[in-house]
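thoughts on my protein:
***
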Amino acid sequence: MKPRTRARGIALQALYEIDLVGHPIGEVLNNRLTDNDIDDRLQVFVRQIVTEVWPIKHSLDAFIAEHAPEWPVDQVAIIDRNILRIALWEFGVSGDTPIKVAINEAVELAKYYGSDSTPRFVNGVLGSLALRHNEIRQALKKFEIKKDNK
């Protein structure tokens, strides 16, 4: 597994635990990062995903719900829901990852962590969301973290 894909997987595990049992973000991140030997740059990426995705989960879920109407978001498997949230955050808020890369990475996570039908579901929902990425980006702009221009 590529290093950034692995980092996304660690972030996914953390979001899954937070979503499932409600453990505190800081505690979950510390445990996940202690259990997984990754370099400092990737640790920052994991922290960024978790600390930026979790607080805006309801906004992300609203877009996901529009593109998976047959599945209410609270009935989507926790893993699937968090894979979608990460990818949507990557191209809708962060903007550091090209849309196609975010979708491909999400499908890879779906293959590794999800059920047999998860990759197809994730690809379909994200493909629909990608068609509206400019609208989504505008709507989620308020959640964008300003990057230091140094």
